[in-house]
Amino acid sequence: QTAPARRGAGPPAAAAETLASQFNATAAQSEAAVTAAAAAAAAASLATADTGFYALVGAAAMLGGVTRMTISLTIIVCEISDDAGALLPLMATILTAKVVADIFNPSIYDAAMALAGFPYIEDCLPRSLKRLRAEDVMAQDVVALASVARARDVAAALDRTTHGAFPVIEVGRTGRCRYLTGQVLRYQLHALLALRAFSPPGSLPPGV
């Protein structure tokens, strides 16, 4: 024996499905309306945007990337435009342009000096030199001259080396300890030898 079927079960289910489909359609229409309104607002904002302000920021970014100036360029652009409200956007834009440009190439001033062949010191050491120590590049067999040296010793040192300067040392009483007292340049030694600027006889202690 089976239970009797419930009357009226079909029409309420169909009505619920109809209401759900209508709700989904209404939600989709609302979402489309919101999207269209946002697009219209964005278009209106672009239509009413201050193009001169964006042009000013773009020009400042270009100058910042070329010259790598930050604070001075920001002040110059603010004074030229007479717009104090653009200070913060200009600072952020110029700083970003400098950081990005430093990754790829040097500034226009560094490039001009390199093309002209001017010697200059970089702002920071290359990555290959960061772990380099002084003992890695220093000479082991340093040619030094005594504070009182013979002319032939000086001439021999000039002939066998190309150093631009020579350390001047003072030998201790034991003859083993040496103390650095200064340095003498190569052209100075050439001048002394050419002028024969030797110590007069009898002015040096015995054995020198």
UniProtKB/TrEMBL annotation:
Which cellular components does GO assign to this protein?
Answer: membrane
Q: What is this protein called?
A: Chloride channel protein
Pfam families in alphabetical order: Voltage_CLC
Keyword match Membrane: yes
Q: Could you tell me the keywords of this UniProt record?
A: CBS domain, Membrane, Repeat, Transmembrane, Transmembrane helix
Organism name? Diacronema lutheri (Unicellular marine alga)
Q: What is its main location?
A: membrane
Q: One GO molecular-function annotation for this sequence? A: chloride transmembrane transporter activity
How this chain sits in the membrane, per its record, is: Multi-pass membrane protein
